[in-house]
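Input sequence (293 aa), recorded before submission:
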Amino acid sequence: MPKLATFPKAELEALVDGSLRLSSYLDFAATLDVDGVELYPLIVDLENPASWSAVRAECESRGLEIPMLCCSPDFTHPDPAFRAQEIAKEQRWIEMSSLLGARFCRVLSGQRRPELSRAEGIELAAASIQACLPFAADHGVTLIIENHYKDGFWEFPEFAQAMDTFCDLVEAVGEHPNFGVNYDPSNTILAGEDPLELLDRVKHRVVTMHASDRYLKHGTLEDLAREEGVTGYAERLAHGEIGQGLNDYDAIFSTLQSVGFDGWISIEDGVDGPEQLQRSVAFLRAKMAEHFS
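Predicted structure, token format:
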């Protein structure tokens, strides 16, 4: 049976600027029917490496695990020195993951810079991820690449947002015991593509999943694509209650069950209040029991 975690989507800015302390968020997470919490490396209470073991103990004292760290390296910059800095950051996050007890640490491709060709972007991102893999293996951590939309602090969307590019990048990195896919069905919708088609193509590589539902508050996906140069998430984009959006969770979980998936499912929800998150947790628990029991 997969395990269920939650990610502090609604609380993230407050956790990063320190107006909400991590211990308070963990108190809230412990009231939910989840097994763990996915964390973000720029949370202010994670700045000091000396605190990482204490944070792990705080989680364990509340009956929670830390399965994964949600990191956003930018590996498609044309400057080798910049990429070397990003590799060093990812290695620090791998070390953080290990000391927090997290078995998984996210990687991304990088930004889809206009001057970057498809072939060059795949080459740069694959080489950077491969450079991180020995360090990850030494720390007992698996790097998980997500079919991502856009980091909140980036100017351009994810280089490997499109399905074909993402699949080609996964293949370029190659098979490795410490490398897998973090599948996010909502992000495929934002790329104007079918999340079930992507899942069918990568299902044997999926080791973790982000559970969310997305909708557009106004306009169309074509309108969203025209806003690619806007720093951060587009205003027209919204997270919705899981089970009420565009994703078919019966089909998703059926496919994952067919390949023996038993990894972590991490919820990205709650932007409209804790009651919404509680309903999403209940929806996913019911679907997981239906498909994986």
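Checked by second reader. The longest strand covers residues 206-211.
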